[in-house]
């Protein structure tokens, strides 16, 4: 992974939490910050293509556990 240096302004209380978490986990504070940046980037990502999620046809009534299991098994078998 290639890293690039940047500067950010952070809330004092957030930095104190990061310091505490890093000490508890035994990792550098920068690692916690990088993980947070990655999570923020991924949670705001817009995907260009459609995701290949299975679709379900039904009556609109809640599905039973057995019906969901059967539908997933059928979809998995068809791949």
Strand residues, percent: under 5%
How would a textbook summarize the main sheet?
A: none
Instruction: Give the ordered list of helices and strands.
Output: HHH
What is the molecular shape?
A: elongated
Total helix count?
3
Q: What structural category arises from helix and sheet content?
A: mainly alpha
Poorly predicted residue ranges: none
Give the mean pLDDT.
Answer: 91
Radius of gyration: 21 Å
Residues in helix, %: 40-55%
Give the N-to-C terminal Cα separation. Answer: 33 Å
Count of strand segments:
0
Can you walk me through this structure?
With 79 residues, the chain is mostly helical. It has a domain at 12-43. Helix content is 53%, strand content 0%. The protein has three helices and no strands. It has helices spanning 12-25, 29-43, 65-77. α1 packs across α2. It is elongated and about 50 Å long. It starts with 11 loop residues before the first helix and ends with a helix. The model has no long low-confidence stretch (mean pLDDT 91).
Could you give the topology of this structure?
Blueprint: H1 12-25, H2 29-43, H3 65-77
Helix pairs in contact: 1-2
Features:
3 helices; 79 residues
What's a quick, concise take on this entry?
By secondary structure, the chain is mostly helical. Helices cover 53% and strands 0% of the residues. The chain has a domain at 12-43.
